[in-house]
Write a structure and sequence with these properties.
Layout (H helix, E strand, L loop, with lengths): L1 H17 L4 H13 L23 E4 L2 E6 L6 E3 L12 E3 L4 E5 L11 E3 L4 E4 L13 E3 L25 E3 L6 E2 L13 E3 L4 E2 L14 E3 L9 E2 L12 E3 L4 E5 L12 E3 L4 E4 L3 H4 L5 E3 L4 E6 L6 E3 L4 E7 L6 H10 L4 H6 L11 E3 L5 E5 L6 E3 L12 E3 L4 E4 L13 E3 L4 E2 L11 E3 L52 H11 L5 H22 L5 E5 L11 E5 L34 H7 L8 E5 L2 E7 L5 E7 L6 H16 L8 E7 L2 E7 L8 H22 L15 H8 L3 H7 L8 H17 L10 H15 L18 H12 L22 H4 L7
Parallel strand pairs: 2-4, 3-5, 4-6, 5-7, 6-8, 8-9, 9-11, 10-12, 11-13, 13-15, 14-16, 15-17, 16-18, 17-19, 18-20, 19-21, 20-22, 24-26, 25-27, 26-28, 27-29, 28-30
Antiparallel strand pairs: 1-2, 23-24, 31-32, 33-34, 34-35, 35-37, 36-37
Helix pairs in contact: 6-10, 6-14, 7-9, 7-10, 10-13, 13-14
This protein binds 2-acetamido-2-deoxy-beta-D-glucopyranose (11 copies).
Length: 850
Amino acid sequence: MRVQLVLSLVFSVLRLALSVTDPGDVDILNQFRKNLENPELLQWPENGDPCGPPSWKHVFCANSRVTQIQVQSVGLKGPLPQNLNQLSKLENLGLQKNQFSGKLPSFNGLSSLKFAYLDFNEFDSIPGDFFDGLVSLEALALDDNNFNASTGWSFPEGLKDSVQLTNLSCMNCNLVGHLPDFLGGFSSLRNLKLSGNNLSGEIPGSFKDLNLVNLWLNDQQGGGLSGPIDVVANIVSLQTLWLHGNQFTGTIPENIGNLTALKDLNLNSNQLVGLIPASLAGMPLDNLDLNNNMLMGPIPEFSANKSSFSSNSFCLQTPGPCAPGVMALIEFLDGLNYPQRLVSSWSGNDPCSWFGLRCDHNNKVNVLNLPSSNLSGTLSPSVAKLDSLTQIRLQSNNLVGPIPTNWTSLKSLVSLDLSRNNISAPLPKFSNSVHLVIEGNPLLNWNQSGTVPGGSPSGSSGSSDNPSAPTKGSSSGANNSTVGPTKPKGSKRAVLVAIVAPVASCAVVLLLAVPLYIYCRKKRKDTLQAPSSLVIHPRDPSDSDNMVKIVVANGSTSTVTRSGSASINSSGIGDSHVIEAGNLVISVQVLRNVTKNFASENELGRGGFGVVYKGELDDGTKIAVKRMEASVISNKALDEFQAEIAVLSKVRHRHLVSLLGYSIEGYERILVYEYMPQGALMTGKITTKADVFSFGVVLMELLTGLMALDEDRPEESQYLAAWFWNIKSDKEKLRAAIDPALDMKDETFESICIIAELAGHCTAREPSQRPDMGHAVNVLAPLVEKWKPFDNDPEDYCGIDYSLPLNQMVKDWQEAEGKDISYIDLEDSKGSIPARPTGFAESFTSADGR
Ligand SMILES: *C1O[C@H](CO)[C@@H](O)[C@H](O)[C@H]1NC(C)=O
Ligand SMILES: *[C@@H]1O[C@H](CO)[C@@H](O)[C@H](O)[C@H]1NC(C)=O
Ligand SMILES: *[C@@H]1O[C@H](CO)[C@@H](O)[C@H](O)[C@H]1NC(C)=O
Ligand SMILES: *[C@@H]1O[C@H](CO)[C@@H](O)[C@H](O)[C@H]1NC(C)=O
Ligand SMILES: *[C@@H]1O[C@H](CO)[C@@H](O)[C@H](O)[C@H]1NC(C)=O
Ligand SMILES: *[C@@H]1O[C@H](CO)[C@@H](O)[C@H](O)[C@H]1NC(C)=O
Ligand SMILES: *[C@@H]1O[C@H](CO)[C@@H](O)[C@H](O)[C@H]1NC(C)=O
Ligand SMILES: *[C@@H]1O[C@H](CO)[C@@H](O)[C@H](O)[C@H]1NC(C)=O
Ligand SMILES: *[C@@H]1O[C@H](CO)[C@@H](O)[C@H](O)[C@H]1NC(C)=O
Ligand SMILES: *[C@@H]1O[C@H](CO)[C@@H](O)[C@H](O)[C@H]1NC(C)=O
Ligand SMILES: *[C@@H]1O[C@H](CO)[C@@H](O)[C@H](O)[C@H]1NC(C)=O
């Protein structure tokens, strides 16, 4: 008994003496075991020393301290002891691929820990101080745990101390928020794998200093990483770069070719834009995935063993060069940092269909029209390659930097509007034919005009003495102009449009269109010393003998006074026809009588300017009476009213059935037309052809700036139509005859020749040889497209919204005029005149419209 006691005592002492395991560590291992649902899988003995000999399975020790536990894929289930970090000499912990659950204990203070594999478990939270003091950590794997699922989590600042990390992986582990900047300081880091989280924000610039081999940031949910990827091109050690499944924007960096070690590049499903850099195409990659971005331009021939690039905005679907102009436009976008809206529109190989661009009939871009489009960035010199450009309209954006010098080589450029941006000097010197608008650019202050090369180009506001409020589009450059408000040169095109656009309204609307032309033209003429002017003095109601006075003032002093009592022949080019209805001036009382005091039963139609009534004069002449509403008698309406009289009373021909007279009394402004009642067969035709004739004359007037008839002109040119016929085929004579106000250039002249030809055609001697209006529309429609102004200009041209397609323009017009046009019979002239105004477009597809 005594011996036994002694032996037992000795044994115990011996055991204590021989034990190599720290009792604290033993405690923790026992807790580790105790917490598990299936501790038997560890095969640890009930008693005994973990560090042995023999040591417990999965446990490794040094100097009586546990340094490693390696239980990967053992199938253990349950939580870890929360004081695990008291295994303070732990260097390598392999718990991966088990079913550990619950709270991951803090590893705070495990200063010897180099490797920690906690991946593929079921931990549901990670403490905020987990990473504190892990100064020796080299590899940490946390992947595929469900940490802090409800809120997500971010790497805490505590991780900062783990500067020796080579591997950090935390895929599918509920990371949220931004990538921390401090990771960029981990110069030892080779593998950073954070795929499948909810990370957002940009790749920190600090990442440029990393020496990564594998960077996996792919497939971030809930938005994903964004911003440019430029920084990765600096990580030249990269072999695998996975950025797919994010929202990265911007271009693939030019210097991506620096990544000479790269084997696998996946950029699938981002929002990358721009051209594929040549350096990328040439990289000897094993795999390149560019699918599902917004890459533009040509598809290059890739050197990668395997490459895919579908669902992008390439100009073509196969490798090969893009259409001319496409590249220049993409470079233009590049300067603007690829605004989303344009990128989504500017795909494919046909710039003519792209938002903000227009093409001429050769399908070359001639208008760049992106005012107020929230563009920011700089202007690309590449635009100079778009040599058909006539207009560049980029006003009211946030453009910075200078205008590229080689934009001055745009030989067709007529108008360049960069007002209200932040353009800076130097201002290149554009030719005088370019209308440059640069007001509202604070850095281009006029004080410094002396330092601006090119000084004050013609048409620029640069010559204004008032930097704060330069006159928009002041085209004269002189400050002593006595004429009224000047219009920008660009408006000369509007004049041309005013010539061609209204024809779309065809004969029925012609009578309404004419005033529009003339109004537009008159506005212009006001500033250009009209060759003649027409003044209507409103009738003095008390003087029945002098209802109206028309003064026609030509260059000379010739004055014609017509009074209401005089019998006036029509003055016109074919004066053989006398307007039987007699006097041009018709008293309002007469019109009241014939329309039963403007009874609604006599209403033919109603339009923007008033109501049209039918009536019948004593001699049986059926008339249409257009009565302007008092409320719309503005100065402008009055101008148009007068202009309508002026033109219609001058452009006359024996076949022209048009204005019979007018009334101006008090507030009454009334025009009287001949009315073609329904069923008047071959009359309708004649009317149509007469209208075509007069339209032709109007075209001539507008082209030449001359009146249809002017006795003060040399005999051979007194009748414009006759004279025009003689000169129109001689290009040089025609050129000389064109109204200088049209500011004709070579390109314009082309269009002018077309109009001149049409004008001649319309005024053919035989009515049957004259085209119908459908033809005129077909001829002029492309010119309208070509020349229409795109202004959100305060100056709308005669209330016509030229930004609309032609048929819409006409439709609106007709709607504005209502049924005002219905006093002209349409029924029997379908071949020539569209019977259904709204069906305008279809109406002209018939063969005889060509
Ligand atoms: C404009 O007016 C200013 C001041 O009145 C004068 O110095 C300048 O010479 C004028 N310029 C022109 C082009 O008339
Ligand atoms: C995870 O959630 C727990 C509690 O829900 C919180 O204490 C802890 O700080 C979170 N972890 C991180 C890294 O934010
Ligand atoms: C680091 O990651 C790489 C690539 O995944 C792997 O080959 C390597 O074994 C890892 N190193 C450590 C120490 O975990
Ligand atoms: C991550 O994003 C997904 C998709 O938006 C969302 O369902 C999930 O709740 C987010 N997780 C966290 C931790 O925020
Ligand atoms: C990357 O390439 C650019 C030119 O493409 C070069 O200037 C730069 O020095 C390169 N950077 C590195 C780190 O090689
Ligand atoms: C890619 O191509 C190169 C040379 O053509 C070849 O050496 C390499 O093995 C290929 N890689 C793969 C993954 O096929
Ligand atoms: C304008 O552009 C900026 C970026 O340049 C963008 O952040 C902003 O949302 C844009 N605004 C509109 C109204 O499109
Ligand atoms: C304008 O400059 C750009 C870049 O400097 C150049 O690529 C382009 O060829 C130039 N275009 C013209 C028409 O000079
Ligand atoms: C214009 O650009 C300059 C220089 O970049 C800047 O200082 C200024 O604030 C800008 N002005 C406006 C109105 O944006
Ligand atoms: C331009 O002139 C105005 C008025 O003389 C002055 O206040 C402003 O400082 C000048 N700007 C510059 C850049 O010289
Ligand atoms: C006014 O303008 C005319 C022509 O543009 C010019 O000849 C004249 O010298 C100018 N007068 C003044 C005072 O600037």
